[in-house]
């Protein structure tokens, strides 16, 4: 569907992804923890290196998690996760090390919950390659549109 005639412009194209237990390789190690306080959430935002605004009130919602991944006591990555009925949706993933290793660590952590059957999300570019290397399967294309002339920091063809 082309939304340009409606005043939208294509921001980027990506792929929907899924990971199940049978897709996972060996556990790469690391510890995942949930930000449970305003200070921990602020640390998550600082580690992400973005200007993402995550409302503190999300900490009170059981289906939301701001997850930090640590190895050797230092933060190496993080993501936001929303869970519902056997599904854990990953977004806002950031990595200070090999992103494929991060995807694998996060997927192992999320799928350790017996109620979670599928981890999913979407990625594009190098992040898509990293997720696929971690065992993710491509489900299909996704096009993200933006209305008007604005720019979204860290998103689009010039994003790292």
Structure description:
With 160 residues, the chain is an alpha+beta fold. The chain has a single domain, classed as Aminopeptidase (3-Layer(aba) Sandwich). Helix content is 21%, strand content 38%. It is built from 3 helices and 7 strands; from the N terminus they run E-E-H-E-E-E-H-E-H-E. The chain has helices spanning 38-48, 99-111, 125-133, and strands at 8-19, 31-34, 64-71, 74-84, 87-95, 118-123, 137-147. Strands 2-3-4-5-6-1-7 form a 7-stranded mixed sheet, sandwiched between helices. A hairpin with a 2-residue loop joins strand 4 and strand 5.
In brief:
With 160 residues, the chain is an alpha+beta fold. The protein has a single domain (4-147), classed as Gcn5-related N-acetyltransferase (GNAT) (Aminopeptidase, 3-Layer(aba) Sandwich), CATH 3.40.630. 21% of the residues lie in helices and 38% in strands.
Total E-strand runs = 7
The first-to-last residue Cα distance is 27 Å
- The CATH architecture term is 3-Layer(aba) Sandwich
The gyration radius over C-alpha positions equals: 16 Å
**In total, how many domains does the architecture comprise?**
1
Order of helices and strands: EEHEEEHEHE
Uncertain spans: none
* CATH homologous superfamily identity: Gcn5-related N-acetyltransferase (GNAT)
Number of helices: 3
At the first level of CATH, the class is: Alpha Beta
Q: State the helicity in percent bands.
A: 10-25%
**CATH level-3 fold name:** Aminopeptidase
Q: Taking all residues together, what is the mean pLDDT? A: 89
